[in-house]
Amino acid sequence: MILDSEQQAGLKALAVTIKELATDLGFADCGITDVDLGEHPAYLKKWLDAGYEGDMQWMHNHLEKRCNPALLEPGTLSVITLRMDYLPPETQAIKILANPEKAYVSRYALGRDYHKLIRKRLGQLAKKINQHLDDNAALRAAFPEFRSRAFTDSAPVLERALALQGGLGWIGKNCMLITPKAGSWFFLGEIYLNLPLPKDKAFVKDHCGQCSACHTACPTQAFVADGVLDAKRCISYLTIELKGSIPEELRPLMGNRIFGCDDCQLFCPWNRFAKSTQEKDFHPRHQLDTADLVDLFNWDEASFLKNTEGSPIRRTGYISWLRNLAVALGNAPPSETVLSALKARQTHPDPVVREHVLWALQRHQAGPAKDH
């Protein structure tokens, strides 16, 4: 499509307005890119060919759509990529990790599920963009039918690649998107749309330098190279994505991490610039930021469903929840309280729970845990 000078000026002004609207809606940053993802699709295919995805076979589904936004949503010409900070204030992450009787939950999962909130804000932004088209006759004439689709970790989308292409940050050695402004404690969201907006300059400089703090901090040494993660060793994968038995050799290395793992972010120097979220929905619920392992292990299924309603934790399911907690209790200091909680579950009807409870009990019988 050939646009005249007035329409081009209108798109340029709209891009500026979009960023202002994004700020008003609570997003910390906003970038715009086109559908060219550069080298990132080739990297993903190489990573999958190496088998690093483990049981996440869904990553093979719709691979071409994941690598080409215009295939996922026909007519897409531009992608708006946005970030929203999620780090709650006063999370005491290091303190909780250092206390093996406490349960460590990844900081992003302490509050309400981010999908609903971010998707709603993205929808509001798309609606406002359409309204601005109504206010510009030249643009509305060129684009009589505005089409958009919003995503936040909910479809085959290369979110970090799009964010890099949109200038939001670089992909660090820990595979996280990192921005000099705020580290990496944020969610990403995207809007695919059929407007040829002027794109921002891609973030091309890698600011990790010689630092490898994330690799050193990883409890299971899941990084096989800079920017290459073997998900099969990652605690986030083991506690969330993996169903069934956790490899026995990795269990002692998991410590008290029962849902996700933040170590590669906690020890990243760039996260000293991270800002606490202003979104109350991301603040801790049900004392999950300070809960004892035994207390969570004693939840029955009804309590689990009630206390994880509207939470990302619901995704792991009750059986995996008990499995993860059994491992953490096996890594905890032995006590009558811990042993009593484990023994109460040793005849659990699910074989996965029984297996991990038995492992934890045998670990305590063998002597004090030494691997956390």
TrEMBL record:
One of its GO terms (biological process) is tRNA queuosine(34) biosynthetic process. Binds 2 [4Fe-4S] clusters per monomer. Pathway: tRNA modification; tRNA-queuosine biosynthesis. Signal peptide: none annotated. One of its GO terms (molecular function) is cobalamin binding. Residues 199-228 form the 4Fe-4S ferredoxin-type domain. Its EC number is 1.17.99.6. TRNA binds at K243. Monomer. Catalyzes the conversion of epoxyqueuosine (oQ) to queuosine (Q), which is a hypermodified base found in the wobble positions of tRNA(Asp), tRNA(Asn), tRNA(His) and tRNA(Tyr). This is Epoxyqueuosine reductase.
